[in-house]
Design a protein that fits this description.
By secondary structure, the chain is of the alpha/beta class. It folds into two domains: 88 residues, Rossmann fold (3-Layer(aba) Sandwich), CATH 3.40.50; 130 residues, 3-Layer(aba) Sandwich (Rossmann fold), CATH 3.40.50.720. 41% of the residues lie in helices and 16% in strands. It contains ten helices and eleven strands. The strands form three sheets. The chain has a six-stranded parallel β-sheet. Strands 3-2-4 form a three-stranded parallel β-sheet, sandwiched between helices. Helix 7 links the parallel strand 5 and strand 6. Helix 6 packs parallel to helix 7. Bound molecules: guanine (GUN). The site of guanine has 9 residues, from strand 4 and helix 6.
């Protein structure tokens, strides 16, 4: 029997997209053009292709213009940098996302750093990262911001709570730490070298897990009543020839007996990422066009 509240990220993301669509429509009225989001995909990684297709569809469904650039897996660094330059200069493009990971021969850091910080809807440029660390307003990475939205929806104020973030990636763990600090949590960052990880996790009121290891966090690691945010998406073999299914980084069945609330996989954090991307795009469009937007409304 499950005791935890199941946090419905899919429903929350739908509501967020509906608000984004309203702001996209009022932007179009005020600016005389649609807000535009450009997505760059290099190579043929199947998971990335699924994400990019989904991003394009949802961008259009929200009333924004979608620009997709698909480049072959052997694209040269200079070619990619030149594309970023063109998108930076294009007035129809308000947001630029380069899908990660890039093929190994490309310098990911250099490509990301080339993106105009005003169009950095992924919040990954050094400027955006620095602004987040300084507590200045700016664009924030989508998955951690979506996770924070779910936490605040469930808990209200996070001030004074013990938060443990497992994982220190650029895309999730590090920005998540900054966001939780910004909410006045006491934050611990755990990672692959952390000793006695179960003991560290056990003190947390909030656990955010983003490591990419299937069902790693077990029920006896979790403090009763804690809120657990599972960012992991792991595809594993399922019963039936060639079948697969998705599981998170948390042993959902076990942890749901102990936690106060938990995000499922799928249907938890996953749907939030694209919804926040669209939110960031419409926010960037307003800022870049000098059109006022109540930041609290999104
Ligand atoms: N690959 C997986 N998640 C993301 C993301 O949020 N942004 C980018 N750019 N690439 C990703």
């Amino acid at each position: 029997m499950s005791t935890a509240q199941i946090i419905d990220g899919k429903a929350f993301a739908e509501r967020l997209r509906a608000r984004v669509a309203q702001f996209a429509a009022s932007f179009e009225q005020a600016a005389g053009r649609k807000a535009g989001l450009a997505v760059v995909l290099v190579g043929e990684d199947p998971a990335s292709q699924v994400y990019v297709r989904s991003k394009g569809k949802q961008t259009v469904a929200c009333g924004m213009a979608s620009f997709e650039h698909r480049l072959p897996g052997d694209t040269a660094q200079d070619t990619l940098m030149a594309l970023v330059d063109r998108l930076n200069a294009d007035p129809a493009v308000d947001g630029i996302l380069v899908q990660l990971p890039l093929p190994a021969h490309l310098d990911e850091q250099a490509v990301v750093a080339r993106i105009d910080p005003n169009k950095d809807v992924d919040g990954l440029t050094p400027i955006s990262t620095g602004r987040l660390a300084l507590g200045l307003p700016g664009l924030v990475p989508c998955t951690p911001l979506g996770s924070l939205m779910l936490l605040k929806d469930r808990l209200g104020s996070l001030a004074g709570l013990e938060a443990v973030v497992i994982g220190r990636s650029i895309l999730v763990g590090k920005p998540m730490v900054q966001l939780l600090l910004g909410e006045n949590c006491t934050v611990t960052v755990a990672h692959s070298r952390t000793q006695n990880l179960p003991d560290v996790v056990r003190r947390a009121d909030i656990v955010v897990v983003a490591v990419g290891r299937q069902e790693m966090v077990k029920a006896d690691w979790v403090k009763p009543g804690a809120t657990v945010i599972d960012v992991g998406i792991n595809r594993i073999p399922a019963a039936g020839e060639g079948k697969t299914r998705l599981v998170g980084d948390v042993d959902f069945a076990g942890v749901a007996q102990v936690a106060g609330a938990i995000t499922p996989v799928p249907g938890g954090v996953g749907p939030m990422t694209i919804a926040v991307l669209l939110r960031n795009a419409v926010v960037a469009a307003h800022r870049n066009a000098g059109i006022a937007l109540d930041p609290g409304a999104l």
